[in-house]
Amino acid sequence: MPDLAPVEIRASNGDDHDVVDPLYSLDRSDDVSRIRVLPGAMETAASFQFDKEDHTLGNALRYIIMKNPDVEFCGYSIPHPSEEKLNLRIQTYDGVSVYSVLDKGLRDLEEMCDVITEKFEEARAQKAEKMDVDDPEPLPFRRVG
What CATH superfamily classification does 10-107 receive? Predict the structure, then answer.
């Protein structure tokens, strides 16, 4: 499994300067600016905006984060269909940081995608082996007429 770098999460402090959480700042420079903490964030409740994302990430990430027993609520919305923005809201139980929950959710989703890719490639390789054998009808269906 590849090493995963933590995601840098930026929060606006209201005076047009970004505040960077030092626990989550690393080197994914092109991905970093795509995640923003929206105003009104607290340690146990925050809304994040992801640029250039849609329902594909939103629904998968919401599902993964909701499986975390420390999460009270997680939901997402697309503010407008013509904008490539995804808003994700996370609320946790007392004492659990939404930033660590988001980081864990992103890591868990990435790990799940790696497993799915691995399983798919194994199945594809097995299917290719079967097709190389003298198989009179390699397709799972028959043409009619």
Answer: RNA polymerase, RBP11-like subunit (3.30.1360.10)
